[in-house]
Amino acid sequence: MNNETKNVFPENFMWGGATAANQYEGAWNVDGKKASTSDMMTGGSHAVPRRVTRTTEEGVHYPSHEAVDFYHRYKEDIRLFAEMGFKSYRMSIAWSRIFPNGDELQPNETGLQFYDRVFSELKKYNIEPIVTISHYEAPFGLTMKFNAWASREMIDCYVRYCEAIFTRYTDVVKYWITFNEINSLIVPAGAYLAGALLVDDSGVFNSTAVDSTQMRFQALHHQFVASAKAVKLAHEINPDFKLGCMINYSHGYGSTCKPEDMLLALRMDQVNNMLCGDVQVRGEYPDFAKRYFEEKGIEIRVEAEDAETLKQGCVDFYSFSYYKSHVVGTRPEGDETQGNVFGGFKNPYLKATDWGWQIDPVGLRYVLNHVYDRYRIPMMVVENGLGAVDTVEEDGTINDTYRIEFLRAHIEQMREAVRDGVNLIAYTSWGCIDIVSASTGEMSKRYGFIYVDKDNDGNGTLKRSKKNSFYWYQKVIETNGADLI
């Protein structure tokens, strides 16, 4: 095979975009839906943390309540996705739209009908849905009832939800992701976001009342079991279903070639990334977890059947988000950088976004090779993009060349990874249309190819406009990644 042939993405490569229901749909209490955990999060900013309230407060802005109103504008948005040439669309289903409190025995029919319409619209344009079952939200009723994923009771609620959507959409959805960025639960910032665990009286969403490494890893174990049960159930309902994990890939380089720094980078990769991947892909906890749990004083409560459940529920593909990399090791104080839950130190060889996330396209090629060498199953990059402040010019144009440059560089490295032999089957750029930021609640942190007229305070017409990146990505898809200019 010559280099020219190797340089082309597979003919059936699933180019597309990605969103999450809680950041996109709105209609938070419409047609039987009740509050999700994200619906109880106030607005915030890079400097001011979001709060979680136990009840909705008068005069307080909750960004997800309207979001950008995909619930009423899905036809317009999907038409725009089709115009770009999307082959796939990664979306999530709002759990509390199907089971409003989370513990009902029967699903909300009106909620199911909404996704009937969405999937029908996608099918009209031959866009393959890639559906995330739980994307940083859960019915808030379950958080208040038994602290959500801290309780084993959550597993049955989740499996009942899965059975409802697997059965309903068996003929229209093939690809399912059980949990978004499941490994985010291992750090405090993911306790509420990924685990739906109760917050303390301050209301700051990344500070739980009884936060502990023990609680978060216990909640994570419950998600592992729930995911495995969902995989087994899905394959029984439809053998053609493909189920995947989704990892928030935290890529860290050793700060020096000092052996201790390199060992620390290895340990962080194991705990932050590979632990969750190993359980979901290989069906068992990795050997290094035993020492980590002992050193952290973690004692996970397991049932006798859990080991067999995990073995029977291995996923079919590996998907992950990739936005940035960081450095780990001994560095001067004040040299820290953040990004998508996990942080580290700044890399002097890399530039950063306005939000301080290190831009590292080559790191994506490294991660693709690293993970594929370990698991040897199909891979998807289901989140990747640049959050930036976009300016609408007087003539209405949005010249987001910085976004094009970011995406071009990352797709180039994906192409190199395919040439390296990685079985990459999909790429869905994050926030293909402007949506609410999960971490800050802002609208000004925009990722989309499509601009939405709305500001951080919830003001705006919600009018959709095409950015220059819209036309660029259209060309990328049309040429199957060959033309990135």
From TrEMBL:
Signal peptide: none annotated. Coiled coil: none annotated. InterPro entries: GH, GH_1_N_CS, Glyco_hydro_1. Pfam families: Glyco_hydro_1. Belongs to the glycosyl hydrolase 1 family. This is Beta-glucosidase.
